[in-house]
Write a structure and sequence with these properties.
It comes from Cryobacterium psychrophilum. InterPro entries: Dabb (IPR013097), Dimeric_a/b-barrel (IPR011008). It holds the Pfam family Dabb. This is Dabb family protein. With 99 residues, the protein is α+β, with helices and mostly antiparallel strands. The chain has a single domain (3-63, 70-94), classed as 2-Layer Sandwich (Alpha-Beta Plaits), CATH 3.30.70.100. Helices cover 38% and strands 32% of the residues. The chain has 3 helices and 4 strands. The chain has helices spanning 16-31, 66-74, 76-88; strands spanning 3-11, 42-47, 57-63, 89-98. It has a 4-stranded antiparallel beta sheet. Helix 1 (16-31) runs antiparallel to helix 3.
Length: 99
């Protein structure tokens, strides 16, 4: 079984420069978890490139099972970047799929 964890965020900053800086910091922080959090099988994160009504930033990450996802979410480095994310996000959606 594989669990695919998908999260999208709308960023709070309205200034394009601040929004781009926040997106880059979130992307870098989450991307840096690869190799640090052993439960991550694969992780892709990045800012939207189309704009319009799209959400600003997305994460797609694969885990072996629900327990692996839970350990990822509780990992101190994930918690640390999550604290920053909450300061720059106005909305969040998530879905976890079984592949």
């Amino acid at each position: 079984m594989t669990i695919r964890h998908i999260v999208c965020w709308q960023l709070a900053p309205t200034d394009p420069v601040l929004k781009a800086e926040a997106a880059a910091r979130v992307s870098t922080g989450l991307g840096a978890l690869v190799g640090v959090v052993p439960e991550i099988r694969e992780l892709t994160v990045g800012a939207d490139v189309v704009g319009g009504a799209n959400w600003d930033l997305a994460l797609i990450a694969d885990f072996d099972d629900f327990d692996s996802l839970a350990r990822y979410q509780a990992h101190p480095e994930h918690v640390k970047i999550g604290e920053y994310i909450r300061t720059v996000v106005s909305a969040r959606i998530a879905v976890d799929l079984e592949l």
